[in-house]
Amino acid sequence: MSRTRPPALSWRYALNRVGQALLVLAIAFTLASVLLAILPGDAIMARYANPELALSPDQIEAIRVQSGADRGWFAQYLTTLAGFLTGDFGYSVASGAAVSDLFAAAVPATLALAAVGLAAAVLAAVAIALLATFGRQRWLRAVFDAVPSLFISVPAFWLGIVLIQVFSFQLGWVSVVDPSPAEALVLPALTLMVPLSAPLAQVLIRSIDEVRAQPFVRVTRAKGASDGWLLIHAIARNAALPALTMAGLTFGELVGGAVVTETVFGRTGIGQLTSQAVANRDNPVLLAVVVVSTAAFVLVNLAIDLLYPVIDVRLRTSPGDRGAPGNQGGHSLRAASGQADAPATAPADRQEAGA
Amino acid sequence: MSRPHTPAHTADPGEPAPRRAAARHGAPADRGTPAGRGTLASRGPLAGHSTLAGHSTPASHSALARRSVLGLGLGAGSALALSACARPDTDPAEGGSPLTGGVLVYFDPQAWQTLYPPQVGFYPNGGIMNNIADRLLWQDPSTLELHPWIAESLPQINDDATAFTFRLRPGVTHSDGSPLDAANVKRNMDLYGLGDDKRQLPPSEQISNYVSGEVLDSRTVRFRFSAPSPGFAQAVSVMNAGLLSNATLTRDSQGFGPGSADRIIASGPFVVESEELGTRLRLRARTDYDWAPPHLPHQGRPYLDGVEIIVGTEYSVRVGALVSGQADAIRQVDAPDEARLTERGLRIVAAATNGVTNSIAMRFPHPLLSDQRVREALIAAVDRKRILTKLFTDNYPLATGILAHSAQGYKRFDGAWRHDPAQAGRLLDAAGWARDGGATRVKDGAALALRVNDALPQPRSKEVMTLVQEDLAKVGIALSINPGDMATQDADALSLERIQLYHSMVGRADFDVIKSQFAGTRRNALLNYDADTKKYRDPQLEKLLDRVSSEPQEAGRRGASWAVQDRLVDRALVLPLFEEPQVYGFRRRVRGFACEAVGRPAFYDTWLADAGERAQNGGPRR
Amino acid sequence: MRRRHIRPLTLAAAAVIALVIAWALAPGLFTRQDPNDGGTTAALLAPSGAHWFGTDEIGRDVFARMVYGASHSLLAALIAVGVGLVVGTALGLIAGSRRGWAEDVIMRAVDVLLSIPALLLSLTIVIILGFGTVNAAIAVGVTAIAQFARLTRSQVVRVSGAPYVQAAYGSGAGYGSVLVRHIVPNSLSPVLALAVLQIGWAILQISTLGFLGYGTPPPTPEWGLIIAEGRNYVATSWWLTVFPGLIIMIVVLATHRLGTALRQVSA
């Protein structure tokens, strides 16, 4: 764990983090531009070489020149960069629609799905964690202790297909053709919830375990503090950081989750936009997806990093206790965490921190 | 598509179809006695708008004729016969006269990309354009004959087919109120014939040699061509020449793209009411529509109130929606599912696509395929019947020619593609390809290894090629299937190094279809045209293809098409597999579904058997 | 430790993994059916004694395809994790032991990798590298680099500060020898535990690519592809999707169990 001192809640720290966030964003943009530039086949080809249209190679070449797709990579990169800086995302090559229009239609749908999915994941995680630790029967605890691993092991696309077949087509509970807004969200949100809730639940379970094992719990309990209040307070404090970190990282999975979920359920959204853009080699759209989702990820994690000192009271009272709040501590905490395994490693990390 | 569906064919000639030759000489439509009308009498029990006739062998056709009483006239050819055999239709709501009202819920596998008519060949685009835009002429999908539509008669055509004069029917308006007059038609054709590079709008593939349009009076317009263009009459009947309003014609490539569907204004029976980007689109009936092709028995407004087109990229969702009753119709039913869907009381309709059969083009410019004996060996090695029985149903008839038997210019080639692996072995031996103990034959150190594309739009291309792979392996030819998504496949298909065997098909109900597939300036399926050297590897083939579109008379065009086919068969350049249909699935409440000549849906005649009840129940939400 | 009761589960997990490895090594012992050629068998047969998981849309035995597919799926998962492990660990080692600008550069690069949506990155890489099992595995592996780099770095930082490492430096040992003798061995066990955990994750990611059409090209019986092909018929022939899905789930669950157990041992 890092030995650097936390720059005591300073502007310098905040500015530093903001600067890093911007840097990451700039690199991501450039990297994405480079990757997309070397993609074999471009959108002009994808759209106009379609045998359906039967354009001759010479005609396609003319269109390419006309649309500026024949210019060098760097010239296109600069144009695009200037556009992004001024809020102009350009036009989809596949459909000709303005990328900003495509996003305006897609973002609210994906946000709704993500918000509901995330909220459901948090609720499910809390429920699972409580049942796994405070369940009355031993078998009940064992079962719910295993649920996060199970949830992580379900292929999301498979789950979506099975859910829609069972609930929509077999039982007829949810219409896919003519759903109310809530109906339209239920199954996709459920599909998204399952993989998202697992890491959170695992973090919570570990936190509860740890808190219950700590001596101060027994001491305070002996002093007569109410059991429930104490636990909630202690657990909330103990679990807040890892859970928050986890939530921030989970955010990165939302786009991937949305691609699968929206494809299966045929929902409008960023994910569906992404998969079509990939299929059509629609670089302007892809670039915008990368930049917007990267920006969202960076912002959310920046916010979490900046919130660290505020939330973790212990950090302010005894900074040496757990290493630096932002940069370094954040890294090590997150280093361990990641897509599927995140929860399992976070506590390990904590153990070393506490050691 | 088996044309002989007349008995079940309500949309069938209200007038005996004027022969195209006559039309060419400017004879006005012969509005003779409606021989075909007789079929209307049978309409009660039949309710058949089987414009859609499926693929059926002559044998199953006669079955159909008998069955069509049961068959509700979706005209699914043998599929229908099959389903009727499997489970007699006992739906009491059968037949009756068409009911007005209701919204049809229709699932399409893909989202539409553009509504610029010359580019609407892609099925999701065409499914919309075919219903919102009218055309000058109407092509009967079962006979492929042309009939008046917005033009009140067939065009006057000069002797060398370089000038076409159309007389328009009066009183037609676009849905924005603007008139569909001669000036408007000229603007449409100017754009489709010439394109507009500045707006990235290419010209229509079907219109060649276009020079200009000329407004003779408000209802008469003449088009001139620099060379004989006999295909123009047919070209103005397809949705690629859908007539749009003047305001719409000023849009650019982006303005025809997703997000602007409700601003594409035309004169058709439906208008685009609203669109949810990438997921759904609503069509609303135009209640003042009164200019259906005079040939159709149905006139006036469409029966449906609207069509809800939903994009369901997941096949299982489309089928699930249909099986559970949430959808009324879906496009693209996989062959293995046909039997299971009919078992559940759903209907399968296979629409013919009337073009070049689903086939493998052997790219002879490649060194491995330049020897005719190798190409002949490939043909002899492949067991087409096994592929069909294993992967497909009766809706996919074995190809008997380069073109589908219902296509313009069809010529039958018996025994040209006989399965004979022993002969394949002998041919390869003779050509010097030896089996030196290995599985793959070699010659001068080179292996006989070829690569075929995975034709994603074609049904079960991957599985077809897997079976071809097995067959070829048996005679010592290694075949690999090019992996990759659509964009990769399209890009690779242009390269001789990447793709030597090209699996594809083209649907178009005109003699030109063969040119669309093989001409160097079109799909260039054989890579006969070398884009680098700008030379033809077989100039003779290209010359023959040119004749197909420049012979002014029908007989001449047929002869030219046959000459092309003879050359393709003599030189063993193409292995046709089967005639590819477009397969739809329907709930029983859907009646009168029809397709245009290449299998895109036309909802004008479609109606719902329970439209009344639905109206009482408030219909679908929203 | 309140987790003692999971021991039998860990054993069961080990058994599952052993079985799947056996499938991969000697598929012929577990099924007599040909995974790629259905011969004359009817398509879409329901599960029966002859075909445990039924037959697929061209008459191939689904169970046989799962058994034969084990080698492809496991190999792909191993390659993916291998890429993440090797590259990520190397980066993490350099960043953790070198500090300074090298660390800054590496960790910013890792931040970038972490912030680009993993699936999008994988898809892009597949398209660039070309379609195929190995390329899909590499594409998935690249997205795993960030986690390995971060974990390794934090471990190295932790170990570097330990008294015995300082003592080793104090006794005059060079950077290289300290790295090899002390830092690497003491940092690695949590990283290896992560690697085991990641195998399950990689199987899922590769099958997701297969589902979207960017994974292993047919007819290779890769697990994701089997589900992807079978899902079309889920409304009419559920077994094509449900059984392979369950198998993937059980295997991923088992690797996860094992990984967790390993981590507990290593912690």
How do the strands and helices of this protein lay out in sequence?
The complex is a heterotrimer of chains A (355), B (622) and C (267).
Chain A: H1 11-37, H2 43-48, H3 57-67, H4 73-85, H5 99-134, H6 138-152, H7 156-170, H8 181-213, H9 215-223, H10 227-265, H11 270-280, H12 283-311, H13 313-317, H14 327-336, H15 342-354
Helix pairs in contact in A: 1-12, 5-6, 5-8, 5-11, 6-8, 7-8, 7-10, 8-10, 8-15, 10-11, 10-12, 11-12, 14-15
Chain B: H1 20-24, H2 38-41, H3 43-46, H4 58-71, H5 77-86, E1 103-108, H6 123-132, E2 137-139, E3 146-148, E4 156-157, E5 163-167, H7 182-194, E6 210-217, E7 220-225, H8 232-235, H9 246-249, E8 270-276, E9 280-285, E10 306-311, H10 315-323, E11 329-331, H11 335-343, E12 347-352, E13 356-362, H12 372-381, H13 384-391, H14 421-430, E14 442-443, E15 446-447, E16 449-452, H15 461-474, E17 478-481, H16 486-493, E18 501-506, H17 513-518, E19 529-530, E20 535-536, H18 539-550, H19 554-570, E21 574-578, E22 581-586, E23 590-591, E24 594-595, E25 601-602, E26 607-608, H20 611-616
Parallel strand pairs in B: 1-10, 1-11, 16-17
Antiparallel strand pairs in B: 2-3, 4-5, 5-7, 6-7, 8-9, 9-10, 11-22, 12-22, 13-18, 13-21, 14-15, 19-20, 23-26, 24-25
Helix pairs in contact in B: 4-5, 12-14, 18-19
Chain C: H1 7-25, H2 62-98, H3 100-115, H4 118-129, H5 133-160, H6 163-170, H7 175-212, H8 223-230, H9 239-266
Helix pairs in contact in C: 1-2, 1-9, 2-3, 2-5, 2-7, 3-5, 4-5, 5-7, 6-7, 7-8, 7-9, 8-9
